[in-house]
Amino acid sequence: MKLHVRHTTRYRYTEPLRYALQTLWLTPKSGPAQNVLFWTLGAPGVLHEQHDGSGNSIHSYTFVADAAAHVTGSLVNAAGQVDTLGVAEFTDEAAMPHPAFFLRPTALAAPHASLAEFGRRFVQPSAIAGVTDLGMLLALSQGVAGTVSYQKNSTSVTTTALQAYEAGAGVCQDQAHVMVAICRSLGIPARYVSGYFYAANEPDLASHAWADVCLDVAARRWVSIDVTHSCLIDQRHVRLAVGTDYNACPPIKGIRHGGGEEDMAVQITIEPVQ
Description:
Layout lengths: L1 E12 L3 E11 L6 E9 L5 E4 L5 E8 L8 E12 L4 E3 L21 H7 L14 H14 L1 E2 L10 H7 L1 E2 L1 H14 L4 E8 L9 E10 L4 E6 L4 E2 L4 E7 L8 E7 L3 E11 L2
Parallel strand pairs: 8-9
Antiparallel strand pairs: 1-6, 1-16, 2-5, 2-15, 3-6, 4-5, 7-12, 10-11, 10-14, 11-12, 12-13
Helix pairs in contact: 1-4, 3-4
């Protein structure tokens, strides 16, 4: 499926902005699950590209206002066309961190005894070290979706996996974090994936998140599971970035000086290309 994506982030400030430094995780890469046909970025400064430790293509820019300038708004645009292939199982590139790296606890997806107890209802240890059954992981994702129900605006970007699990509610980001944290609690490498999801009747999920779980550590074999929909990723999914949790690959992260109070509005549209 060919999908055209447009992602706009608009900022409004109550006072003039003097300085800003931002990093963008807004560029998808071609891989087993997709071919990026074209992609463009726009920002209020010259963009500099690099790659982070997880292989994501990231861009940064610096904005410095002239002394007499009265800048009270800015805009970041990302747009392009991606051919999605619906491939859920894949082997990591050699340059990617070893799967064991994704066992490490992080602020938003830390292992916990109660998460491990929940996970053992669905996932049993394998006779082969470092190998996990896909059917058990899919059952776990269904369990997480049933326990942490999708409720819009019920959490924030700082909500941890344990907090969402105990509250029993969250958004796709939280459901992915809970899945990742449970897997880590069971000794299974897992990581957070940001991306886009196309569904004409679910515009709130255009900005989406899911989990990569390691099926075979020695072979560096992974599977992408959409916890919100309790399924493997398919042609509706566009993979954007991957990291240990949301903090490692947010769409935009930065610092600023001046500007007073900030208002941010995000608009994402995804349309199939005939």
